[in-house]
């Protein structure tokens, strides 16, 4: 029988030999992959800085895995390659921008010397398919934007927290093709939470926006699909859409913005605002320059003034199935205190071409419908008014005018 001493020696030799055969030292890169076509996963924990890990990704693309921890930076992390993913360990991965000279935390853009296949400099450089996932990035009131992406197609930002920046939380600058921002927390930024400029086929879904200057701004774009988001406590406005068409703002909760919940301006058209709860804001939906739009099935409650305002530069609007109300809960009782009973209605301000049907106006002040003349070509029918004063009777002649004159109204080609 083998002695105990010999047995221990045998086990030690066996373990040492096995370790030597299987050990691969941890280097800056990852082990050589065995799978054909695979590229190594870059683990940032093996590099001295996050930027070094980003720079280790080949031009063909790859993934950088961020470990848990707080990582302070004083200049932007820069991503210039496509098919790139930066992923962290959720809120446990915290990138903090301590720069106080207005520099961004993360910049994503094509390389300055991007070449065409023939070797010439690309006059319209683009990179494709960049993803940011599952980490937290913060700044300070003197820093720049949190995430600043320019000319990135099919960018996807998911599960990211972007907070306390001196500029926008996220800025997508002509990220034209299919940008997506979902399940993010965008809070306490000094400018816009999510700023979209020149984007197309945009999806903004299931995000939280809180106490930014404005929650979301969409300029010079089209096909915005904004749904299922929660917007709360903004210092100015909730959603601002300008020079944009063919979009939908649906099933969002927009509460306690000091300014307006939704603003449409600068030749917006073909936009639907539906099934939103718009509560306790300074104003509700403001249509400054909007045509061919639908406002339907929204709940407007406790708006300080102008739950829905349609201005002189707007027309051809349908207003259907909305509820304008205060905090009434039945049996002659209201939920809110007597000093918090503000609840506004609809204002038609020198506009034309409006259909108002199937809406409920209850206990709103000062009027359910305020008509500022000249307002013409309006159909107001099948609405229910409870405990209100209203100017809607001024619209009777507008209904007649519409029936008699609409067929003869000249149709002019719209400007592009």
Structure description:
The protein is mostly beta strands and 416 residues long. The protein has a domain at 39-212: Pectate Lyase C-like. It contains 3 helices and 44 strands. The chain has a 15-stranded parallel β-sheet that branches. The protein has a 13-stranded parallel β-sheet with strand order 3-6-10-14-17-20-23-26-29-33-36-41-44, with no helix packed on it. The longest helix is centred in the N-terminal third of the chain and has 19 residues, at 4-22. Residues 193-334 form the Periplasmic copper-binding protein NosD beta helix domain.
Which keywords apply here?
NosD_dom; elongated; PbH1; mainly beta; 416 residues; single chain; Pectate Lyase C-like; Pectin_lyas_fold; 15-stranded parallel β-sheet; Periplasmic copper-binding protein NosD beta helix domain-containing protein
């Amino acid at each position: 029988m083998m002695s105990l001493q010999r047995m221990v020696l045998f086990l030690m030799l066996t373990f040492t030999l096995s370790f030597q055969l299987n050990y691969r030292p941890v280097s800056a890169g990852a082990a050589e992959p065995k799978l054909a076509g695979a590229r190594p996963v870059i683990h940032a924990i093996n590099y001295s800085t996050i930027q070094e890990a980003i720079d280790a990704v080949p031009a063909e693309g790859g993934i950088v895995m961020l470990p848990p921890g707080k990582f302070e930076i004083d200049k932007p992390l820069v991503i210039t390659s496509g098919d790139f993913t930066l992923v962290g360990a959720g809120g446990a991965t915290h990138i903090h921008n301590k720069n106080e000279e207005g520099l961004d935390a993360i910049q994503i853009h094509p390389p300055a010397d991007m070449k065409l296949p023939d070797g010439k400099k690309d006059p319209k450089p683009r990179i494709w398919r960049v993803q940011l996932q599952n980490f937290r990035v913060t700044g300070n009131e003197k820093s720049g934007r949190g995430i600043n992406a320019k000319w990135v197609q099919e960018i996807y930002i998911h599960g990211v927290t972007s907070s306390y920046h001196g500029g926008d939380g996220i800025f997508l600058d002509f990220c034209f093709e299919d940008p997506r921002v979902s399940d993010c927390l965008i809070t306490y930024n000094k400018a816009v939470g999510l700023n979209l400029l020149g984007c197309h086929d945009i999806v903004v879904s299931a995000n939280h926006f809180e106490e930014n200057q404005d929650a979301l701004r969409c300029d010079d774009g089209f096909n915005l699909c904004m749904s299922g988001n929660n917007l709360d406590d903004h210092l100015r406005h909730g959603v601002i859409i300008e020079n944009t068409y063919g979009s939908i703002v649906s099933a969002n909760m927009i509460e306690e913005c000091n300014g307006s919940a939704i603003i449409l301006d600068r030749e917006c058209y073909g936009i639907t605002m539906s099934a939103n709860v718009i509560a306790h804001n300074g104003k509700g939906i403001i249509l400054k320059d909007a045509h061919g739009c639908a406002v339907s099935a929204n709940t407007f409650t406790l708006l300080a003034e102008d739950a829905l305002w349609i201005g002189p530069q707007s027309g051809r609007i349908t207003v259907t199935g909305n509820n304008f109300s205060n905090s009434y809960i039945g049996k002659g009782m209201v939920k809110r205190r007597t000093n918090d009973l503000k609840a506004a209605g609809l204002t038609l301000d020198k506009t034309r071409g409006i259909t108002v049907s199937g809406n409920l106006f209850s206990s709103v002040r000062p009027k359910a419908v305020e008509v500022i003349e000249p307002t013409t070509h309006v159909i107001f029918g099948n609405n229910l008014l409870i405990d209100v004063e209203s100017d809607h009777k001024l619209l009777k002649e507008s209904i007649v005018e519409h029936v008699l004159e609409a067929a003869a109204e000249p149709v002019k080609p719209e400007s592009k």
